[in-house]
Specification:
By secondary structure, this protein is an alpha/beta fold. The protein has three domains: 107 residues, Nucleic acid-binding proteins (OB fold (Dihydrolipoamide Acetyltransferase, E2P)); 172 residues, Cobalamin-binding domain (Rossmann fold, 3-Layer(aba) Sandwich), CATH 3.40.50.280; 40 residues, no CATH class. The chain is built from ten helices and 16 strands. It has a five-stranded mixed beta barrel with strand order 1-2-3-5-4. Strands 9-8-10-11-12 form a five-stranded parallel β-sheet, with helices on both faces. Strand 15 and strand 16 form a beta hairpin.
Length: 446
């Protein structure tokens, strides 16, 4: 390479560039859309340094990069931007800026930011959310519908149980909303108890929506019969809620088979998930308070029903006591009448029985006298007959008495004390006794 006759010093080239740029861009102001990165704030000095970049949509690589700064009185535009949009001026947000091109011989090319367009950021967020909502409507007609400006989803059609006790909580353990929700829930004034299963996931960042979606899937696949799923996170800028504006999470919430309660951000924040969920609350604290109020409403209803039951029971008891008293009086009166009637009937039956018994006794008495008379007559006749028979037998016995027989000249023969009736039983030389009326003799058979 040959050396030029009059080479320039670097400072001379820088001054030439500066003069050229200032001559071209000094009075020019440009509206530039860019993404922020590398922000360094110095509020005490009213200074902010950052880098503006543009990324390729398909590859996400950086297409352009220029340093920028906000100085002096222009520094107030940052506060105005944050107050208007609710978005912290930080890295990785896309903004519309009014800039002036500046070149410094020592620090090189940069952009002086004179203003930040708040409407662009607000409008872009709104357009992004609207695009997500429209996509949800177009691709999920069976689960998401728009009726009179309100979004009706499958999840909104679900009913809460009378008492919400078993809860699946999706949040980050580092999020303020996580602690606020649990404190409000477990320290409720009524002393209600809750079972909270925590499904922790980051609530902001580029991958937050994927992690939240994974937790929803995990809850669904757990098979646990939760009464409600609660999504909570603390306040922040609208860009901090991009995870809850994502199509993936919003679609899952709209189609989820368990009622979803959202408590995302502050009073003014509203995400697409809020539009899809069964119940939207403003903050994590209000989400917990709403659950407690739901249970208290059921408790109050039970107490009211208890009072109504007690009052109705007392009315029924009093009414039945009156009826019972009336029935008792009727029963006592009818019983007395029945007893009196039965007593009269019993007296008549007793009198009839006594009369019948008297007649029967009189009849039996007559019969007994008749039997006694007949028995007496028969007895006398029988005695007479028996006396006659006895006298006859006595006479017969007297005639048959051996003494009387012997008296008439007969005799009885004995051998060895036994009477002999047959002479053939005697043998020669037998000694026999002969008994006569007046004595006995001994004889010898010859």
């Amino acid at each position: 390479m040959s050396v030029a006759e009059n080479p320039l010093q670097l400072s001379e080239l820088s001054q030439l560039i500066q003069a050229t740029i200032e001559g071209t861009f000094r009075e020019q102001r440009y509206q530039v859309i860019a993404e922020t990165t590398g922000i360094a704030h110095y509020p005490a000095k009213s200074q902010c340094y950052l880098t503006l970049i543009e990324k390729c949509d398909s590859t996400n690589t950086i297409k352009a990069s220029i340093k920028a700064r906000i100085w002096g009185q222009r520094f107030a535009c940052i506060q105005l931007f944050e107050e208007t949009t609710g978005q912290v001026f930080k890295d990785n947000i896309q903004v519309l800026l009014r800039v002036r091109v500046h070149y410094h011989a020592q620090y090189g090319l940069s952009l002086d930011i004179e203003d930040i367009d708040c409407n662009f950021t607000i409008g872009k967020l709104a357009l992004t959310r609207q695009a997500v909502v429209q996509k949800l409507l177009d691709e999920n007609p069976e689960h998401i519908k728009e009726v009179d400006g309100e979004y009706l989803t499958f999840n909104k059609k679900l009913n809460f149980p009378p008492v919400i006790q078993k809860i699946a909580l999706i949040s980050s353990a580092q999020a303020d909303g996580y602690a606020d929700f649990l404190h409000e829930l477990h320290n409720n004034q009524y002393g209600y108890g809750f079972c909270v299963d925590e499904y922790l996931a980051p609530v902001q960042g580029q991958e937050a929506h994927k992690e939240i979606y994974k937790q929803l899937v995990k809850i669904f696949e757990s098979g646990v019969k939760y009464d409600a799923v609660v999504l909570v996170r603390g306040g922040g800028s609208q860009l901090d809620f991009q995870a809850y504006d994502s199509y993936m999470v919003s679609r899952a919430v709209a189609r989820f088979p368990i009622p979803v309660i959202t408590g995302i951000g502050h009073e003014k924040n509203e995400s697409v998930c809020d539009l899809m969920a069964r119940l939207k609350t403003k903050t994590p604290t209000k989400a917990a308070a709403t659950i407690v109020a739901h249970n208290h409403q059921f408790s109050a209803r039970l107490q009211q029903l208890q009072k109504q039951i007690i009052l109705k029971t007392n009315e029924i008891i009093i009414s039945q006591e009156l009826v019972l008293n009336a029935v008792q009086n009727v029963f006592i009166s009818q019983t007395k009448d029945l007893l009196n009637q039965e007593q009269k009937d019993l007296k008549e039956k007793i009198n009839t029985a006594i009369h019948a018994a008297s007649q029967h006794l009189q009849h039996e008495k007559v019969h007994l006298l008749r039997v006694q008379f007949n028995l007496q007559c028969n007895t006398d006749n029988r005695i007479k007959n028996e006396k006659f028979k006895l006298q006859y037998l006595s006479n017969s016995l007297q005639h048959l008495d051996p003494k009387n027989v012997l008296k008439r000249g007969f005799a009885m023969v004995y051998k060895n004390g036994k009477i002999i009736t047959n002479s053939e039983t005697l043998e020669k030389n037998d000694i026999i006794q002969t008994r006569f009326y007046t004595g006995d003799i001994d004889s010898k058979v010859l």
